[in-house]
UniProtKB/TrEMBL annotation:
Matches recorded under SUPFAM superfamilies: ClpP/crotonase
Similarity remark: Belongs to the enoyl-CoA hydratase/isomerase family.
Lineage per the UniProt record: Bacteria, Pseudomonadati, Bacteroidota, Bacteroidia, Bacteroidales
A Pfam family it matches: ECH_1
GO annotation terms (biological process): fatty acid beta-oxidation
Entry protein name: Short chain enoyl-CoA hydratase
Annotated source species: Porphyromonas loveana
Length: 256
C-alpha cells in the first residue's frame, strides 16, 4: 500500500519505517497517526526481526501538528490524545525489537514516539524535549507515563515542568538514549545494531522483550514467575535446540 506520509523498506528481515513529511518536520497530524496505525498493523503481520523508525529531513518528529490542534475542543483534544497513545502502545507491544534512529528534533509527540521504542540511537544533532506546557497543554501521547519510567521521576518532572529541550549528550547522560553517534554514521550504526539483534534467536528476543515489558509492571514475584514461564517455553522452540547444539559444536547458530 502507498502512503502519503510514510516510507517503508525491508531488507534481510529488517524493516525501516521513515516518517516522510519534511515540509512539516514530520509533525504528527491525525492523518499521519492513522497511516502509522495501519502501517504498524501490516508490519506486525510481516514479523521482521527488527523495526527501525526514523524521520526524513532535519527532524525525527518535531511534535504533534499544532496547526491542527489549535482550535480543538476538549473532547477533540482527548480523542487526538487517545489516537496517538493507541498507536504508540501498538508500537511498544510489537513482539520484535523497535529501534528509534533519532536523526534530528524529537520534541513533544516525537519524543513520545521515541519513548515507545525499545532502543534509541541519536545523532549528535538530535534534540529532545517535552515542551507542551509552553503551549498550555500536557504531553498527550503517554509521555508523562513513559518518561519517568525511563529516566526517573525527578528528571522527568523537571523536563516536563520546564519544557526544556536537551541535546543528545544530555539525553545519553540521563538514560533517555542508548547511544549517540555522528549524523553521518547514524544509519550505519543503527543498521549494525539491528543486524546484531537479528542474528540472535527471534523467539528468545521476543520472549525477553515480553518478560521485560510486562514484568517491570508487576510485583517482582510475579515478574520472576513470568520469566520462568517464558524461559520454559523457549525449550519448545527449534531455536533452543539449534542454539545449544551450535554452542557445543563450536559453530555459529543458524536460527530460522
Amino acid at each position: 500500500m502507498k502512503y502519503q506520509n510514510l516510507k517503508i523498506k525491508t531488507n534481510d528481515r529488517i524493516t525501516i519505517l521513515t516518517l516522510d513529511r519534511p515540509e512539516a518536520m514530520n509533525a504528527l497530524s491525525s492523518d499521519v497517526l492513522c497511516e502509522l496505525k495501519h502501517t504498524i498493523e501490516e508490519i506486525r503481520k510481516d514479523c521482521p526481526r527488527v523495526l527501525i523508525i526514523t524521520g526524513s529531513g532535519k527532524a525525527f518528529v518535531a511534535g504533534a501538528d499544532i496547526a491542527q490542534m489549535q482550535h480543538m475542543t476538549a473532547m477533540e483534544g482527548k480523542a487526538f490524545g487517545q489516537l496517538g497513545s493507541e498507536v504508540f502502545r501498538q508500537i511498544e507491544e510489537l513482539p520484535f525489537p523497535v529501534i528509534a534512529a533519532v536523526n534530528g528534533f524529537a520534541l513533544g509527540g516525537g519524543c513520545e514516539l521515541a519513548l515507545a521504542c525499545d532502543l534509541r540511537v541519536a545523532s549528535d544533532k538530535a534534540k529532545f524535549g517535552q515542551p507542551e506546557v509552553g503551549l498550555g497543554i500536557t504531553p498527550g501521547f503517554s509521555g508523562t507515563q513513559r518518561l519517568p519510567r525511563l529516566v526517573g521521576m525527578a528528571i522527568a518532572k523537571e523536563l516536563i515542568y520546564t519544557g526544556r529541550i536537551i541535546n543528545a549528550e544530555e539525553a545519553l547522560r540521563i538514560g533517555l538514549v542508548n547511544r549517540v553517534t555522528t549524523a553521518e554514521s547514524l544509519d550505519t550504526e543503527v543498521m549494525e545494531l539491528a543486524r546484531e539483534i537479528a542474528a540472535r534467536s527471534a523467539t528468545a528476543v521476543s520472549a525477553s522483550k515480553e518478560a521485560i515489558n510486562r514484568g517491570t509492571q508487576m510485583h517482582i514475584t510475579e515478574g520472576i514467575a513470568l520469566e520462568k514461564n517464558l524461559f520454559g517455553l523457549c525449550f519448545a522452540a527449534k531455536d533452543q535446540k539449534e542454539g545449544m547444539t551450535a554452542f557445543l559444536e563450536k559453530r555459529k547458530p543458524s536460527f530460522q
